């Protein structure tokens, strides 16, 4: 029986400052580093075969800290036409090495014109209800940005094409990503309705653990 672990990056500098981050590549805060290290301690004895992350450094930093605790060398397999010829192919990896695939399909929701804005100030300007709708509804796009549906529509095809086959092959998979890309993944694997998805919050640095059994995801506390 193999498993899927989903981790939202530790607190970022802009989570700390209560600003919309989206695709802005802000790093972890000091507290975020500590959260990622606590998460690493929790996962220390969990055997991992393959890692996926976004193109944003906060999710990559979180992943590095998790792998460092496991004394594993994560090796990025970057996309390029020559990758299979020039890269160090995973078939040559030893037990201390783990392939990392990164994609902007796993990036945070693109927050458009809200990126950089303070969330409290946005509530004062646009009203609390409107900001909640932008942040948590399924279908409504924030100005110039992606709705959760838009995020889902890039995240889930990537999940099906790249992550599911690894699970099908019996691999233990970790995905280090973002609040809204992971809300999409959890919506998909737990079959959460559009009406219920606004209630789903994913905490920073707290791993979600699923066993993968015959095509089914079984959540473990
Ligand atoms: O700012 C963001 O990019 C996200 C996650 O931190 O915010 P929200 O939780 O409001 O979707």
From TrEMBL:
Protein name (record): 2,3-bisphosphoglycerate-dependent phosphoglycerate mutase
Location of the active site: 9, 108
CDD domains: HP_PGM_like
Catalytic activity: (2R)-2-phosphoglycerate = (2R)-3-phosphoglycerate
Residues of the signal peptide: none
Alphabetized PROSITE patterns for the sequence: PG_MUTASE
Enzyme Commission identifier(s): 5.4.2.11
SUPFAM superfamilies membership: Phosphoglycerate mutase-like
UniProt organism field: Methanolobus mangrovi
Record carries keyword Isomerase: yes
């Amino acid at each position: 029986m193999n498993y899927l672990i989903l981790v939202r990056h530790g607190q970022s500098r802009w989570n700390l400052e209560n600003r919309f981050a989206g695709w802005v590549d802000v790093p972890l805060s000091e507290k975020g580093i500590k959260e990622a290290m606590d998460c690493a301690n929790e996962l220390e004895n969990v055997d991992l075969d393959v890692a996926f992350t976004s193109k944003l450094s906060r999710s990559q930093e979180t992943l590095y800290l998790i792998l460092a605790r496991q004394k594993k060398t994560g090796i990025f397999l970057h996309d390029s036409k020559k990758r299979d010829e020039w890269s160090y192919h995973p078939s040559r990896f030893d037990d201390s090495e783990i392939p990392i695939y990164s994609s902007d399909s796993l990036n945070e929701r693109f927050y458009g014109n809200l990126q950089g804005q303070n969330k409290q100030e946005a509530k004062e300007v646009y009203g609390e209800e409107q900001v909640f709708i932008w942040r948590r509804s399924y279908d409504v796009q924030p100005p110039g940005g992606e709705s959760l549906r838009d995020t889902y529509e890039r995240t889930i095809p990537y999940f099906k094409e790249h992550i599911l086959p690894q699970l099908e092959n019996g691999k233990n998979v970790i995905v280090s990503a973002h609040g809204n890309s992971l809300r999409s993944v959890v919506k998909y694997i737990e079959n959460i309705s559009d009406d219920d998805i606004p209630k789903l919050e994913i905490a920073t640095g707290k791993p979600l653990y699923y066993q993968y059994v015959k095509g089914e995801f079984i959540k473990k506390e």
